[in-house]
Amino acid sequence: MREEVVRRRRWISEERFLDLLGMTNLIPGPNSTEMAIHLGYVRAGWPGLLAAGACFIVPAMVSVLALAWLYVRYGAQPQVTWLLYGVKPVIIAVVVHAMWGLSRTAVKGPLLAGVGLAVLGLSWLGANEIALLFGGGVAVLLLRRARRSFGVALMAAGGATPAVALGPAVGTMGAADLGTLFLVFLKIGAVLYGSGYVLLAFLRDDFVDRLRWLTDQQLLDAVAIGQFTPGPVLTTATFIGYLVSGWVGAILATVAIFLPSFVFVALSHPLISRVRNSVGAGAFLDGVNVAALGLMAAVTWELGRAALVDWLTGGMALVALAVLVRFAINSAWLVGAGAAVGAVSYLLVR
Q1: Domain boundaries, the chain
Q2: Using an 8 Å Cβ cutoff, are 281 and 180 in contact?
Q3: At 107, phi and psi to the nearest 5?
Q4: Closest CA to 202 of 222, 214, 187, 220
Q5: Is the CB of residue 213 less than 8 Å from the CB of residue 244?
Q6: Nearest one of 237, 193, 1, 227 to 102, comparing CA atoms
Q7: Gap between the Cα atoms of 249 and 203, Å rounded
Q8: Is the dihedral of CA 276, 278, 283, 284 positive or negative?
Q9: Least reliable range by pLDDT among 4-8, 102-106, 122-126
Q10: Cα separation, 187 vs 164, whole angstroms
Q11: CA–CA gap between residue 200 and residue 90 (Å, rounded)
Q12: Which residues fall within 8 angstroms of residue 294, CB to CB, at 6 or more apart?
């Protein structure tokens, strides 16, 4: 986006672009989608806001919807099962690599590391993921304020300042269930902070553990499709919506998960100049980010147990992770390689 709108088209300045980027980090929702919506609003007001968001989301939604149809129609075939056998360990490696990259930016000291580890432990104990996200933000905000107050007190006293089961068949859901589907994805879109991979924690808590509409295997398949296709990872919602209620569910899920982004951008855009230097907003965001990492780690552990089922899948995950660390390669190529390994494995065991 920076290359396109700042350097090539010169629609906005570098400083303005960074201000918009900062605001996308302060509001819930997928950062890439919200950045597109912000840029559309800057360029053409309300029509630009709607057009930019729709044009960023719809192509990805259509491609995911097509793959969801193929998955439902042919997913039980042995060939497809083996393809996914090879893809899933690669997806685990992609998420682990994303977590590592995010941690290098988000974990800025012992305080944030401690909050992230606390969230990881509480998530394993079954704590609510929304409470953990916002609790992490509030904890860092309060602890930093307490540290600053303690430092001021020390200075006043002459001291030194311290260093700072399978889901329902497609199309069988009733109106009440469709309403639940819409509300769950609306909730996720309204509270999702951090990387799109944090979506894993929310999806597993709602659709695998609570509603039991999906299995861990189906969730991994959905994430694989969201990762493999261009566009925002949150189009995973399209895939899941189709699995549980056909094309109606796919459209409802997509609208629900992205709708809060349009609302948050519209409400927050006029406030950019006020919050850009806010110490409190920065502390809260730091806490939310490390809490998101803790949630990602917890759910990745659980999904890894479902994906890494033998020595081959374990080895594939390690090799994929090593390649991601060593080379700047698009993860879609690794997903394709994993599918190829799965296909070869199928041919060997026939």
Answers
A1: 2-75+111-303
A2: no
A3: -90, 95
A4: 187
A5: yes
A6: 193
A7: 15
A8: negative
A9: 102-106
A10: 35
A11: 15
A12: 115, 116, 117, 118, 119, 120, 123, 132, 136
Q: Identify which has the larger pLDDT, 129 or 326.
A: 326
The DSSP H or E segment spanning 22 is helix 14-26
Question: What pLDDT was estimated at residue 251?
Answer: 96
Q: Quote the tokens at residue 119.
A: 């969230």
Choice among 63-67, 96-100, 147-151, 308-312 with the minimum mean pLDDT: 147-151
| Count of beta carbons in the 10 Å neighbourhood of residue 248 | 14
| 239, pLDDT greater than 50 | yes
Give the three-state DSSP class for 310. coil
Task: Give the length of the chain.
Answer: 350
Cβ-contact 201, 299 below 8 angstroms: yes
* Identity of residue 148: R
Contact 320, 230 (CB under 8 A): no
Q: What is the sign, positive or negative, of the torsion defined by CA atoms of 29, 103, 205, 138? A: negative
At 87, which amino acid appears?
A: V
Q: Taking a C-beta distance cutoff of 8 angstroms, is the pair 238, 254 a contact? A: yes
Residues 141 and 304: their CA atoms lie apart, in Å, by: 33
Q: Report how far residue 33's alpha carbon sits from residue 60's, in angstroms, rounded to the nearest whole number.
A: 12
